[in-house]
Amino acid sequence: MLPTHDTDDVPRCSAKGCRAPASVDLNWRNPKLHDQTRVKHWLACDEHADHLADYLGVRGFLLAREPFRGTADS
Predict the structure, then answer these.
(1) Superkingdom of the source (predicted)?
(2) pTM exceeds 0.85
(3) Which long-range contacts (CB under 8 A, 24 or more apart) does 4-11 make?
């Protein structure tokens, strides 16, 4: 289960200071640290999805961008 940092159990955006519910799941890995089986997840709201995806993309970490369906393994 993903940490929400809230008591309402609604998965929230991973952007610093954002409290919006997540709508996008950004799948990523740092190939210098993680093997091919390890996939990490950042959740994003619509407002921050492009920014977070760009951040991961320029580093070569972004694997996939998908709609958030309510659960993910981190």
Answers:
(1) Bacteria
(2) no
(3) 11/43, 11/68, 11/70
The first and second tokens of residue 24, run together, are 């996008």
Calpha distance 6→54 (Å, rounded): 26
Q: Give per-residue burial for 36-71: e unless 16+ CB within 10 Å, then b.
A: eeeebbbbbbeebbeebbebbeeeebbeebeebeee
Boundaries of every domain in the chain: 24-67
Tokens 């289960």 label which residue?
1
Asked if residue 29 lies in contact with residue 63, where contact means CB atoms within 8 angstroms, the answer is yes
Task: Give which of 7, 61, 34, 9 is closest to 42, Cα–Cα.
Answer: 61
Per-residue tokens: 67: 């709609």
